[in-house]
Specification:
Length: 277
Amino acid sequence: MKYIVLSLLLASTAAQAQLTQRYANDSSKVAFGTRPTKGDKSLMINVVLFDSTSQINHIADVIKLSERLTFRYYIQPNLVFRASAKVQRKATVASGNSADSSFVNILSVSQKITALTRKNSNTLLLVPGIEKHFSPKNIFDVYYGAALPIGYTSTKIKNEITHQNGDYNRQQVKQFSPLVGLDAFTGLNVFVGKLPLSLGLEYGWGALWKLNNKVNVSQQQQITSGTKVQSFTAEYSTQNQDALGAADINKYGKLNKREFAAGLNQTIKLTCNIYFK
């Protein structure tokens, strides 16, 4: 029992030591913990309760502006710098050969193929922002602020099909889309006793510009017909959907496309801040 009591005392001492300079509550008010001050930092863990970005259909791979983990730094007791980052990479490779001829699968020389497909997708999003807090005399720590998401998404696909007779079809697909956004938010924190911890809620509204949302395709093909061999090379741009959201299978020599979404990017988050020096 004495070891348990000793452990609790040590934990309490360590917790209070993390933020010894935080503002104490006014003794005339109900005590709801202490406040961070200049130079303090926190890690904000976000649990999304509602996210309307999933309802946006015309931007296929929209980036959610609300990240799960945010770093915060107190420039002043009422002014906070915050930042989060999202880095994602996905790679897929598939290769194979045609099955051997049999009574089930009888293939001519031109039908026997070797296939190779590679796909690499990358996402980078940096979200710096600023928070303005109201008076520390309030029971609830209420704030508002804005963030400026900036980054890109890119996709590269390489598809090769080689026939046993020497014919081939090689296609390379590239897409690079810069991302620029604006996120406005407001929220509140409630500090938990003397612990370096606060719980809160945050509502956010965002806008996102996805620039250069087109696909560039480079294709090479060789076809043998009897004794005649023909080679083709083509470069063009495509889009999965047109401006009205309809499927588009056309090939364009020149294509300019960008997308914008605002108002629909709304989030409500439950937040937990862990403070430290």
